[in-house]
Recover the amino acids of this structure.
């Protein structure tokens, strides 16, 4: 088993994820895994970074596929005996003018952004080594979507005692409510992406609390963040930040020094803790 440190970035064949891998290759003192659901796209991205003189490694990962997540888990366990840095970056968003029925958009978006990210955490968080760093890429849209929720939902999502099971039930209820076309009556905002990112931010708060309860002495720091509005296939060419600028906050959180005890369980943008 290798004693080398290891970092994994999900959804990193393009966009912000690729920029995070590029920055980690330059700054992280260990192996950096570029992952992609499609090996062809992943290998092409690795080749691109190699052209720049960097040495990322590759592993397949589709966060919608539990078998794929578990294959990566087993590989990391066997080769490294764990994991030092996990960046949950993979995500999807329907375009504003997409005509796919809203209930389908809700189901598909939640499947990847919330349930897929949660499955990665379930399988890989137990592997985190002492002083590990976990970064869940959420969005400022999670804050605005929270503001669009009913008072009752806002209270639940801001609660310091909400459990992961309760959060999963709420995310499942959102999808079911869209199918019955009662989601707005039930207090949800009219944004599937926004609700999925509420899920990612609240999940991060819960996971950080569990780390405090169960592994306090291991000094693991886990946060959610917003990369900003970034020029990628997701956000388009008019966005204000380059992918490299978008990677700055996730990379800052991934490389928090070993003597840092904060931020932890926070929502961070522009390297600044934001109120939730
Ligand atoms: P992007 O260019 O569309 O890249 C998304 C990445 O996620 C791609 O590599 C994509 O792979 C991957 N992905 C999607 N579904 C996946 C799955 N099931 N398994 C594994 N990988 C999967 O988007 P981006 O702008 O870089 O977004 C990265 C993250 O930042 C997302 O979580 C997004 O919500 C968040 N974010 C972005 C912005 C922004 O302005 N861009 C703002 C706030 C938050 P494929 O190439 O195979 O599709």
């Amino acid at each position: 088993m290798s004693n080398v440190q290891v970092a994994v970035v999900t959804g990193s064949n393009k966009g912000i994820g690729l920029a995070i891998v590029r920055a980690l290759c330059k700054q992280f003192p260990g192996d950096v895994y570029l992952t992609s659901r499609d090996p062809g796209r992943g290998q092409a991205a690795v080749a691109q970074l190699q052209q720049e003189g960097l040495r990322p490694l590759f592993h397949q990962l589709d966060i919608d596929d539990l078998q794929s997540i578990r294959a990566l888990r087993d590989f990391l366990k066997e080769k490294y005996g764990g994991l030092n840095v996990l960046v949950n970056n993979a995500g999807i968003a329907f375009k504003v003018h997409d005509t796919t029925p809203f209930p389908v958009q809700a189901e598909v978006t939640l499947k990847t952004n919330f349930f897929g990210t949660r499955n990665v955490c379930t399988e890989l968080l137990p592997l985190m080594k002492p002083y590990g760093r976990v970064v869940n890429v959420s969005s400022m849209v999670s804050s605005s979507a929270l503001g669009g929720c009913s008072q009752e939902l806002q209270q639940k999502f801001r609660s310091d005692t909400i459990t992961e099971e309760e959060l999963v039930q709420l995310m499942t209820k959102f999808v079911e409510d869209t199918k019955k076309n009662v989601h707005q009556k039930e207090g949800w905002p009219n944004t599937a992406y926004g609700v999925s990112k509420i899920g990612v931010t609240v999940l991060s708060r819960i996971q950080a609390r569990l780390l405090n309860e169960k592994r306090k002495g291991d000094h693991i720091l886990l946060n959610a963040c917003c990369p900003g509005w970034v020029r990628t296939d997701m956000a388009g060419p008019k966005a204000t930040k380059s992918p490299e600028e978008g990677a700055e906050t996730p990379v800052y959180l991934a490389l928090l020094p070993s003597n840092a005890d904060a931020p932890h369980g926070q929502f961070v943008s522009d390297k600044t803790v934001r109120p939730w």
Notes: Residues 6-97+110-140+197-271 form a domain with the Rossmann fold fold (CATH 3.40.50.720).
